[in-house]
Design brief:
Blueprint (H helix, E strand, L loop, with lengths): L1 E4 L2 E4 L7 E6 L2 E5 L7 H9 L8 E6 L4 H4 L2 H8 L2 E5 L3 H4 L11 H13 L9 E3 L12 E4 L8 E5 L4 E5 L3 E3 L2 E3 L9 H12 L5 E4 L9 H11 L4
Parallel strand pairs: 4-5, 5-6, 6-7, 10-13
Antiparallel strand pairs: 1-2, 2-3, 3-4, 8-9, 9-10, 11-12
The chain binds zinc ion.
């Protein structure tokens, strides 16, 4: 467990994928849940900062990939939290629609691994979000659809702590921001438009789906990334 700022923590149970907790007096909101089988570790980590299962009121999934959504169903059973996801990833999360077709060999390998090693029990239900939706008890958080990585990828802005959670819309490779992954990105053009959308938002700290967070001046770093990748 690492504390990012006053109310935001990074849980380390996810290992290569980040799970964040926004801890407030009225309850705790989790962003993403790691791969399947992480629920007990997550709850044990939260216990370390005196957060009990019943304190977890909301779980938000940034997008319906198994490394982010894998433990959500078990966590919902144990906490009775409300589960939210963008409406365009809703059916995939609930197992009502298949994930988008893999388009090349590497994506096929990853899809095979996801199917065989990261298969997760789908949650029974969730609340679909879209632009300007609000989350009960956390009404100040802004939902910002940032599609491209998946059709329903979204970011969450915590204005109070000037922190943006961007899921896999932007990546951090060894401390340097990089854009949407060449593979595993449903629509790269759309994904870059989402990076531009993020670059236009005012925030200081960026919490990514993978890799270390950017503590300071993160908006400028996203703008630098956009300039560096500007198509001719
Ligand atoms: Zn992803």
């Amino acid at each position: 467990m690492k504390q990012i700022n006053q109310s935001i923590y990074l849980l380390e149970s996810g290992k290569f994928v980040n799970i964040y907790a926004i801890v407030r007096d009225n309850g705790v909101l989790l962003i993403d849940t790691g791969t399947p089988g992480k629920a007990d570790n997550i709850l044990k980590e939260l216990d370390g900062i005196n957060v009990k299962p019943a304190d977890v009121k909301v779980i938000v999934i940034t997008h319906a990939h198994p490394d982010h959504a894998g433990s959500c169903a078990v966590l919902i059973d144990k906490t009775h939290a409300k589960l939210y996801i963008h409406k365009d990833d809703f059916d995939v999360l609930l197992g009502k629609a298949p994930p988008p077709e893999p388009r090349d060999f590497l994506e096929k390998i990853v899809a095979f691994m996801a199917e065989h090693f990261f298969k997760y029990p789908p949650p029974k239900d969730a609340i679909p979000l879209e632009e300007d939706s609000t989350i009960q008890g956390f009404e100040d958080l802004k939902i910002i659809p940032t599609p491209g990585h998946t059709p329903g990828s979204m970011s969450i802005l915590d204005v109070k702590d000037s922190t943006l959670f961007c899921g896999d819309a932007i990546n951090n490779r060894a401390g340097k921001l990089i854009g949407p992954h060449k593979h595993f990105t449903f629509n790269r053009e759309q994904a870059w438009r989402s990076v531009a959308k993020i670059g236009a938002i005012n925030f200081n700290t960026l919490c990514l789906g993978h890799g270390p967070w950017i503590a300071e001046s993160a908006q400028e770093k996203v703008q630098d990334l956009l300039v560096a990748n500007k198509p001719d």
